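Case study 2.
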Amino acid sequence: MPVKSGFLAYHRTGGDLPPLVLSHGLTDNGLCWTRLAAALEAEFDIVMLDARGHGDSSRISTAASCDPAQDIADAVAGLGLQAPIVMGHSVGARATAAYANRHPGEVAKVILEDPPLLPLASAEEVETRDRKFRAQVARFQSMTEAEIYAGGQATSPSWSPEDFPAWAAAKRQVDPEAMPTYTQPWQSEIDRIAVPTLLIHGEPALGSLVSASAAAEALALNPNIRAVQIAGASHNVRRENFPDYLAAVRAFLGVASSA
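Prediction:
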């Protein structure tokens, strides 16, 4: 679909059902939500976006041209969605939060899967991080999809086989400029969300980007937020403990647990 300065690709399950918009994490694509979409498509019309610089969406011309929250807003408007549920993982969760924060009351519910609730980085830290990210992207693009797939299985043996095909394909689609640079603290992206919001995160000791203190601060900052920690999960919560993750999501959305 056309958006400002480009286009966004998406996949949609369809049906006359409440809309649920999913925004993926860094180096993923929309189809990385396939397992969750399959579990929820009977209850929701699910839209899986390819973020700018990922999947089949537009590349990133300049950092200034990339506003992931605005891209979500443009996608919601372009698809004619009314009061969607919005959900994201990692940087997609940050974008989702920022979108909901800018549009209070225009979404039904919000789910944030392990957003990076981290202090702003210094200019030197940003430069180092971006350089490492570009090198990582170059490494992915020098590999075959099969090599990436095999490497993922070796490093993440607890993931379901369903998770790897889209994950591996996505790695070769990433724009080297896709690493976001945050100029506003995360607190300013959640303080005005006006609807029920679920912060679902893993264990910091395992690699979650939501510390206990950050989760507590989020809850204190906005009474619409509740938090759930999923045992045994790190940053990729749904991939590392899908049953408990899905149960928490279903409970929050008010849909019956699958048999």
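The CA atoms of residues 141 and 172 lie 5 Å apart.
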